[in-house]
Design a protein that fits this description.
Layout: H1 2-5, H2 8-17, H3 23-28, H4 30-39, H5 46-83, H6 89-117, H7 123-146, H8 149-168, H9 173-185, H10 190-208, H11 216-225, H12 233-256, H13 259-283
Helix pairs in contact: 4-5, 5-6, 5-13, 6-11, 6-12, 7-10, 8-9, 9-12, 10-11
Length: 285
């Protein structure tokens, strides 16, 4: 499973870059973190473990040399757009699409590693991975069920406020209203999303158990590079509607920014740009 074996490398780069974590620290120990995550799903040993470790190193180096410079370029473009005070809907769509391209590039890069190593798992290791994935999905389902709708809304609203505050500084009343309205207008797709994840896992488990099948590589490749193809029409529609709402929220918030909030946003982006530049020098040379 790509997301289990190697997918954490992109999360380290993308999530740390857009969070308040220590990016230098996180990226420096990315390989160790990936191996730790992998061990939560399947136990490796011997030559297979050594080969996977080397591949993780390769992926990390590839990411630092080829992907980080692209992230830096996009940040440069965004900072310039903000400096010119000309952010538009088209800009927001462009940057959103660029993020998806980054993610898809990583998935495509990781695919051959997964096609190499997954068939090498023993029957016991395959079943261990499937069981651990099922357990994680069940835990997520239980977490959703434990919260009443009001509690879910409050929790999501608090998270949205915190994220906006991190990027913009203290929020104005109008901005809080915009975020509340955005949350109320969003289509709830939690159950559909969980159903999609369950479908993906069922197909993955059936594929993983038959590495000798003539269409194994084709089926596994689809699961890795285009898992969205398993989404039903309702989930696709809900995801698209929520995406449009989120893009509109970003533009609406931008139009309400005070001078200090614009500087806060600009400086935060500049800080991440500096960090990426430092990472490139430290890890890609």
């Amino acid at each position: 499973m790509l997301k289990v074996l190697f997918g954490r490398v992109c999360m380290i780069s993308l999530l740390l870059i857009v969070s308040g974590c220590s990016t230098q620290f996180g990226y420096r120990f990315a390989d160790t973190f990936i191996e730790w995550q992998l061990a939560k799903y399947v136990s490796l040993s011997g030559p297979l473990e050594d080969n996977v470790d080397r591949s993780i190193d390769e992926i990390h180096l590839w990411h630092a040399r080829t992907q980080l410079p692209q992230y830096r370029t996009v940040l440069d473009e965004l900072i310039t757009t903000l400096d010119d005070d000309k952010l538009t809907t088209d800009d927001i769509i462009h940057y959103s699409e660029q993020l998806f391209v980054f993610w898809q590039t990583i998935r495509n890069q990781l695919e051959p590693y997964s096609l190499t190593y997954l068939p090498q798992l023993s029957v016991e290791q395959r079943e261990q991975m499937i069981e651990n994935l099922r357990q994680r999905l069940e835990e997520e389902r239980e977490e959703e069920a434990d919260l009443e709708p009001r509690e879910q809304r409050r929790e999501r609203l608090d998270r949205a406020f915190e994220r906006a505050k991190e990027w913009l500084g203290p929020l104005q009343a109008e901005q809080r209203t915009l975020i509340r309205r955005w949350l109320d207008q969003r289509t709830s797709n939690d159950q559909q999303r969980l159903a999609y994840q369950e479908t993906w896992l069922e197909v993955f488990a059936a594929t993983l158990r038959q590495p000798e099948a003539s269409d194994y590589a084709e089926r596994m490749s689809l699961l890795i590079t285009a898992p969205e193809s398993l989404r039903n029409e309702a989930l696709i529609a809900a995801t698209e509607a929520n995406r449009v709402l989120t893009q509109q929220l970003m533009l609406d918030l931008y139009h309400t920014l005070s001078y200090s909030q614009k500087r806060h946003l600009r400086n935060k982006l500049a800080d991440y740009r500096t960090t990426i530049d430092s990472l490139i020098k430290n890890f890609a040379t």
